[in-house]
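Hi R.,

Here's the chain you asked about this morning:
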Amino acid sequence: MARTAGSHSDITGPRVMDAALRLFSRHGFAAVSMRQIAAEVGVQAGALYNYTPDKQTLLYDLMRAHMEGLLQAWQDQASTGDALTRLEAFTRFHIRYHLERPDEVFISYMELRNLTPDNFRLIEALRRRYENELENILRDGTAKGAFDVPDPRVATMAVIAMVTGVTTWYRTAGRLSVDEVQQIYWRMVRKAVSA
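And the predicted structure, written out as tokens:
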């Protein structure tokens, strides 16, 4: 990233990313201009190019940061034990992590179509690494007779779609706590894969 002498890239760079995240999640990638991002940050439009080469790079960087953060957070807390214990940990982790980052989740799922083919491949590879974590749990549980999952890949996609969907309706001011939502979803996931 280019930097102008005397600039505060350690401050402005993150502000550019935060502004892009807010605007992309609120209005959609295609509807947001670099000029709008600059206005949100409080800099001239031309100054943005000190922090990013273009809007596509901003989108890719946001998605990459989300996926790398997700993978790292899972690695930091991944549980050991039997497949059922690990599946519960994954379900609860996924829900909590995603509920804490609704804008990142929205962009990561809704704006994939706006990535260039090369950027799409890179993000898909990160997504596949995360999906493989769940798929390995399901394969292990199926091999040991704990789960009845005829196609672990399809089951992986179904479980991830279900637990990610919570971000579309959950509100912190609603009647259920995050812990209660995790418990309800865990029961549904367990029933969906039980032998």
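The chain has a mean pLDDT of 92.

Let me know if you need anything else.
M.
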